[in-house]
Amino acid sequence: MNVTAPLDGLTVLEIASFVAAPLGGLTLAQLGADVIRIDPVGGGADLGRWPLAPSGTSLFWTSLNKGKRSVTLNFRHAQGRRLLGDLLTASGPGGGIVVTNAVGQEWLAYSGLARIRPDLIHLHIQGHRDGRAAVDYTVNAATGFPLITGPKGLEGPVNHVLPAWDVACGLYAAVGLLAAERHRARTGAGSAITLALADVALAVAGHLGFLAEAQLTGTDRPRIGNHLYGGLARDFATADGERVMVVALTRRHFVDLAAVTGLADTFTELERLLGADFGEDGDRYRYREVICALLEPWFADRTVAEVGRDLTGTSVLWSRYRRFTDLATDGTLAASPLLREIIQPGVGSLLAPGSPLVMYGTTGPRPAPALGADTAGVLTGLLGLSAAEVRALAERGIIGGPVPVPPGG
Amino acid sequence: MNVTAPLDGLTVLEIASFVAAPLGGLTLAQLGADVIRIDPVGGGADLGRWPLAPSGTSLFWTSLNKGKRSVTLNFRHAQGRRLLGDLLTASGPGGGIVVTNAVGQEWLAYSGLARIRPDLIHLHIQGHRDGRAAVDYTVNAATGFPLITGPKGLEGPVNHVLPAWDVACGLYAAVGLLAAERHRARTGAGSAITLALADVALAVAGHLGFLAEAQLTGTDRPRIGNHLYGGLARDFATADGERVMVVALTRRHFVDLAAVTGLADTFTELERLLGADFGEDGDRYRYREVICALLEPWFADRTVAEVGRDLTGTSVLWSRYRRFTDLATDGTLAASPLLREIIQPGVGSLLAPGSPLVMYGTTGPRPAPALGADTAGVLTGLLGLSAAEVRALAERGIIGGPVPVPPGG
pTM for the full model? Predict the structure, then answer.
């Protein structure tokens, strides 16, 4: 263990599946916490979640559980549940930190566990705050985003492919656990925290002004395709059949874009005719269609490489649209210091990301464990069980994972 | 100040604009930190960002800066920059925590500030790790998501409307600052942290398995509209012209969906004919088109209310697609304990969200300050300047904000 890692000494117990809680745990693991994911013997509901490697191993599971330890217990057996309770409330100043998204499992509730370890930090991720189930896809439908996403004129909703609410929820969970741990370090008091996926979506929609806009104007934003609401940004086709996203967020960006495309005089004349000021966000947005129509030929006459050459050195923000396979084959992943090669059990060699937080003491990516691989090690290390006791539990089917070899065996 | 708030005693200085850094600061403010946003006199580039209230005030700005204090300084004046440095390095055990997205401003760099306050925690949000600029819209184009979002058969990219990378980046920033503050509390050492928006997107794409999939399979996911990759979920039209999102993520969800729609026998026969097992994620996904085609009439025959009535009590996950104005008018916002009425200067009364993290000692939403409103208060409180000194600075144009009234004046 790296003694200088920011989260050195913290032990986080994760009893959860799918995206939010595992991403929260991963975030803390990549900053140096010892994160122990505890699953039922045989794995949770997300063990086979797509995408899959050619070997059949879930790349979803291995990607979200990098650098954690894996314990499997038989939750249906009273003694398995007892062991789980012992792990969640095990002593130690950095322990007793639990994140779960389990529904209706009384033995995972804060109240019972806090009777054993009063300074417990317990974060419960829910669908809705009232306990009703929800997932990213249903929460997203309920927010309003899918009906304003996608090309103008399209009927019906457009779902996101990135499970953005799960991602935000997992990161909020990491924030909540660290805030509670700070509080415990200062006061000795534990925390019962709840975090609902639906609240995450409403909070973020509110923090970005979408809810205020709906309340105060009583109208919904139109569906504007790839334009940027209240600014000037859009995708353009290039001569070589690619697309680029181009953003003029400020007056300076727009002035540079007008200059490089040779349209400065045209835009000035157009501003005069329209009584507009394209230096202002609102006017760039109101006249986005005519501005973009004037810009289109410049991009259509140039390859992506030529666009890049001409825009380099200006303030204009732009990027080529890429596919995930482009990232893998064009050298982006190999060149990025964020990623490093790992040997993932069940998968093989691949480039995987560490934490985007670059700070002293953080580690690069480490592979995910095989399911249950650390069961014996955690039970002996955290609970002080003997190897013989662990073997007996395995033989009775109360724990999973590889059975430790008997002495001399 | 609530002495029991989880982040009680922390002072975070934010010199940033737009989404990521302000959302990070907001996240900490809603857990009890004193967050001071410092802008140039007259405001930053995001002061007028859309959406706007009918009054013209930016709902973007006020929503992202709730519960902070606002200071304005003249950064072009050497003494204004000196005051800024004094604030960033002011003494106090919970101070010296800085988050910025400024580019090329040497007086905001870690190296110089840490010479004055060696235990400084300094988080620099960048576009790319090498210093090149980027925004959510260009980063998103570079990831691969826009080319697999939207209806099957559509040409070209579909941008997201939610700036998901900015949101994730802001939450990662909050995590980084809390991790560094823990490290400082234990060791006395400060931290220089960098966080690049492009790295956030690559890291999240990697953590969800998208990068591993591209590397190992060499192929891109197809554009599958509103279907869920590797599972069964899609939107359906209802008899009253609405749409609902329906998700069967597990075997149990699917069994319940088949039962409630009266299709259990049909699906069993279909599984036999196809040699498939719809209890398996992969088979539900492979045969998604035929399964959804069989489900469509059931939804088309029912209103949303009837769908809701019939699905209640089953495990099936579903939601109506709503507009932001629906949330405002159908009682969702008013009924949610997440939101509370605030009186926002420049805007008026509205419902605004607090933190989705429900934990002891957190506060509900508080309004954003008027730009510069706390300049005098912060300079006297944090730096110990006298009211006369503050007045003199204001008269010389070195600070903004309302000028304190002279004694007896």
Answer: 0.97
